[in-house]
Write a structure and sequence with these properties.
Low-confidence stretches of chain A: none
Number of helices of chain A: 0
Low-confidence stretches of chain B: none
Order of helices and strands of chain A: EEEEEEEEEEE
Structural class of chain B: mainly beta
Largest sheet of chain B: 7 strands, mixed
Largest sheet of chain A: 6 strands, mixed
Distance between the termini of chain A: 41 Å
Oligomer: heterodimer
Largest interface: A-B, 26 and 23 residues
Distance between the termini of chain B: 32 Å
Helix content of chain B: under 10%
Chain lengths: 112, 115
């Protein structure tokens, strides 16, 4: 069964600190992995997409990594800001058909 | 205008009511989706439409009835819902239904409360 597990479920950090969110998946065969950011009361917005051949990709202060061998991805946030407070959702796509598997998300709170 | 617009943003209804959620996309996409997001649970796919034809229905109860009159509009008709149906309902669109290559663009969601 395809699964996506995210950790931690929730995280509180101080403004200016760094943090790393984890995503482990069992989806096979693998096509790509996306990280979405969902602000409270809003819809998810794509941050980055990782394909099989990519190890690292940055989008401003967000850096995603992918290890396709161990089926793990991480999202690193540098110099956190209050606006980073949101849920971060990992979504994995398999090559078979159109199925997307969603993780349960990590709820990040950045405090001043 | 944002790419995907959902109305209403908030809805409170009794179990015997009939209401509808509306979604409109201005991106020229060919596929539209309804997702349900409950607290502390991953997003659940409810319906997929590609070029106005329903292609997936993930065993959703018949009290939820989708309608896609054209490639830009999607409705979710609600009838005799249960309190456990209270959730955030998200509409999304993508260029085509090959979700493994395309990005999903989500609306802001409709927060539904069933009393």
């Amino acid at each position: 069964k395809n699964q996506v597990e995210q950790s931690p479920q929730s995280l509180i950090i101080l403004e200016g600190k760094n943090c790393t969110l984890q995503c482990n998946y069992t989806v096979s065969p693998f096509s790509n992995l996306r990280w979405y950011k969902q602000d409270t009361g809003r819809g998810p917005v794509s941050l980055t997409i990782m394909t099989f051949s990519e190890n690292t990709k940055s989008n401003g202060r967000y850096t995603a990594t992918l290890d396709a061998d161990t089926k793990q991805s991480s999202l690193h946030i540098t110099a956190s800001q209050l606006s980073d407070s949101a849920s971060y959702i990992c979504v994995v796509s398999g090559r078979a058909g159109n199925m997307l598997t969603f993780g349960g998300g990590t709820r990040l709170m950045v405090k001043p | 205008e944002t790419g995907v617009t959902q109305t209403p943003r908030h809805l409170v209804m009794g179990m015997t009511n009939k209401k509808s959620l509306k979604c409109e996309q201005h991106l020229g996409h060919n596929a539209m989706y309804w997702y349900k997001q409950s607290a502390k649970k991953p997003l659940e796919l409810m319906f997929v439409y590609s070029l106005e034809e329903r292609v997936e229905n993930n065993s959703v109860p018949s009290r939820f009835s989708p309608e896609c009159p054209n490639s830009s509009h999607l409705f979710l008709h609600l009838h005799t819902l249960q309190p456990e149906d209270s959730a955030l309902y998200l509409c999304a669109s993508s260029q085509d239904r090959r979700a493994n290559t395309g990005e999903l663009f989500f609306g802001e969601g409709s927060r539904l409360t069933v009393l």
